[in-house]
Amino acid sequence: MATSSQRRNQTVRPVPSAFGRLLKRLRLAANLTQEDLAERAAVSARLISDLERGVVQRSRRDTVEMLAHGLRLSGTERATFAALASRRQAPDNSADREPAPISLPVQTTAFIGREREISATTSILLQPETRLLILTGPGGVGKTRLAIETARRAAVAFAGGVTFVDLTPLAAATMVMPAIVRVLSGPDENEPQDLDEMAEAIGDEPLLLVLDNMEHLVDAGPDIAALAERCPQLKLLVTSRQILRLRIEREYRVSPLGLPASTRETQVNALIDAPAVQLFVQRTEMVQPSFTLTDENAGTVAGIVTRLDGLPLAIELAAARMRLLTPAELLQRLNRSLPLLTGGPRDAPDRQRTLQAAIDWSYQILSPEEQQLFRWLSIFTGGFTLDAAEFLSDRMGLRASADTLDTLASLVDKNLVQRLSEPAAGTGIPASRFRMLETIREYSLDRLSQSEERDDVRAHHAEWCAELAAQSDAGLNSPDQAAWQASLVQEHDNFRSALGWAIEMGRSELALRIAGSLLRFWVNAAQFTEAQRWYEQALALDRDSETAARAKALLGIEVISYFRGDYAAARSYGEEGLRIYQALEDKAGIGWSYGNLGLIADAGEDYERATDLYERALAIFREIGDETHTHFMLGNLGLIAHLQDDQDRATELLEEALSTSRELGNQNSVAINLSNLGLVAFARGDLDRAIELQTEALGLRVDSRNDASVARSFDHFAAIAAAREDYERAVRLFSAAEGIRIELGTTLQPNDREFNRPYLERAELSLGGDRFIACWEAGVSMPVTDAIEYALRGGTSGTSKRPVQGSIRSIGGS
């Protein structure tokens, strides 16, 4: 094999460094003389001449930056330019230099959406300390395309050339080094027999070797590292679905293409900058020239690329189907994406002609243990934690948690599972979270469905959901309730999956346990319609059972019906649940039932019955030492006193409830009690104190992401504004609250509606019909974040005439 120096003519005279050659090429490409560039860059023309001729081999950093500015270099070109300028290179000793040999596959389609990645990989590759850069990522993410483009743009830095070696056809790691030799050797050359001969043949000029698709040949890594050690001027750019675990390697994870910020966006201008959309449009135009991205199909296209995870291969295969389908038809058929994503170009490798083949390539090189855990993890919808993976592994018979951790780490290394970089940012949740791309999960789930493990995995997943839901009872009443709520939001799709399976399989008790324990989560998230549907389906499985799980689910649907304003149904569910709890002699359950039946009586303004039920519940909770529900009942009794115009008694009860809720760290309850004390201050005409209390309450509600309670805070701020005769503000806040309730599918309780009514009537009378409607429309369409800021801006201090009473109540049962 000829050395790189033997490939050149041997006339000896100094020539420019790689940086000097690049400077001249870029200057001529920009159609600039040395004088033109000197003027643009504010440097001397003599310096430019010396750099290009090799008289000066290196230049100061600030001079390099000025030259880059004068050349109007892009980010990638600038990175290459700066990297070459910083290298200490001896000038070449060949005069009539031939171009460095560049052997890279020709790309027949445009390269889209990777400028940031190219800039980063080029910069890393050209850093002097980088010897081996490995691009990793799942199948179909575009590692090969990125490697080729990176090598092409960095080629000027490699006087010895750039050589591409496709490792896909190789069956064993022992075949890697011979394959490299065959590509580097000329047709008439004797192939070197060992590493030393290879190193001598490669020579001492900078050479870039691109090794493509090495994931099934990782055992060849030590030989690659040994070759790099013998060839100081050799750099390696490798693509692989997993790292090689070599000391010299630097990993760059290739992510899917950027997606639109929202699939609800329907404006072309808001979507066209998303690289995934650009790729879909460009590839669709190749098979359907008449296709145009419009405001009518933009939202559908956003849904397509999002469903495909932004994977370039998946997007290209989907775009190929646009010969026959409309965007809407394609999106509908992507519910099962793998059978649809076939028919890639005939000249593409087999693994790239269908997405299933691309993923199957990764699956086949897994160990049996890795394949097993990969199948199991597909049962999680929307991601999972390490604890969840270990729970499932333990129940499936993999006892050692270290085995689960190591196997999961290997799946992450192989890019079949992703570790999310920001687990619930801002919520205080410490647990790392993992997920599969949906296209990969679909493949894995299909593998699971064909195995004998399927039913056991589904059952254990549902049991995990039931245990997590049960733990949430305590968590959502603890100082960490905001973190708990956020973590449960992350698991909502898992709960849905488990409930759907349990109901489908007739697993009544399991479905009731999950649904019964999720009441407070659903209330906090204002998921009333969905909650009611799950409760109805779970309760219908076995109408004759009288278990604690059924009673708790009855309590749940009672509360949901109450929030939806169906008091007759709520009372019926509550009375059935009370009867079961009494038969079971479950004191806590009896207390919950009394308390929630009290809510229904309270809503019907039967304050005598409501007081009796709250006091029965209070006595039970004090007897069993349940401080959480004790302060709930104190707060509700305080509201009864407020509504009956006994503000001294109301203050006493509500302050006791507030003190206890602060001690327990229950922020939702703290917010409720603050807000209700604000109503007492408002009823007394102390608007300054009312605003102070409502402001603190609203801050807590915003932190807990409880939109239903935020809406009630808006009502209270609106009433204060109306009491100050700031009617425009009042109407906007009342309508902002109503907008939230419309979106959540909830309704005001009758006495709360009565609280709002006189202020709205007074505002309409003062503003007039047209102005009232204009303010109402402005408020109901106001984004929640804007409405919060608007409410907190407030008005001036003052007192008011005697206002009516309002209220917020606490629910029990969790």
Q: Unreliable runs, pLDDT <50, ≥5 residues?
A: 1-14, 88-97, 423-428, 795-806
End-to-end separation: 77 Å
Shape estimate: elongated
Beta-strand percentage?
A: under 5%
Q: Work out the helix count.
A: 40
- The total beta strand count reads 9
In round numbers, the mean pLDDT is: 82
Assembly category: single chain
Which structural class do you get from the secondary structure elements? mainly alpha
How would you summarize what this structure contains?
By secondary structure, this protein is mostly helical.
Please tell me about this protein's structure.
By secondary structure, the chain is mostly helical. Helix content is 60%, strand content 5%. The protein contains 40 helices and nine strands. The strands form two sheets. Strands 1-3-4-5-2-6 form a six-stranded parallel β-sheet, with helices on both faces. Helix 10 (221-230) links the parallel strand 4 (207-212) and strand 5 (234-240). The longest helix is centred in the middle third of the chain and has 22 residues, at 454-475. The protein is elongated, with a radius of gyration of 34 Å.
Secondary structure blueprint with pairings:
Layout: H1 18-29, H2 34-41, H3 45-53, H4 61-70, H5 75-85, E1 102-103, H6 115-126, E2 132-136, H7 143-154, E3 162-166, H8 176-184, H9 195-202, E4 207-212, H10 221-230, E5 234-240, E6 249-253, H11 268-271, H12 275-287, H13 298-307, H14 312-320, H15 327-333, H16 337-340, H17 355-364, H18 368-377, E7 384-385, H19 386-395, H20 401-413, E8 418-419, E9 433-435, H21 438-449, H22 454-475, H23 481-490, H24 492-504, H25 508-517, H26 519-524, H27 528-539, H28 548-563, H29 567-584, H30 587-603, H31 607-624, H32 627-643, H33 647-664, H34 667-683, H35 687-703, H36 707-723, H37 727-744, H38 750-767, H39 769-780, H40 784-793
Parallel strand pairs: 1-3, 2-5, 2-6, 3-4, 4-5
Antiparallel strand pairs: 7-9, 8-9
Helix pairs in contact: 1-3, 2-3, 2-4, 4-5, 5-6, 6-7, 9-10, 12-14, 13-15, 18-20, 18-21, 19-20, 19-22, 22-24, 22-25, 24-25, 25-27, 25-28, 27-28, 28-29, 28-30, 29-30, 30-31, 30-32, 31-32, 32-33, 32-34, 33-34, 34-35, 34-36, 35-36, 36-37, 36-38, 36-40, 37-38, 37-39, 37-40, 38-39
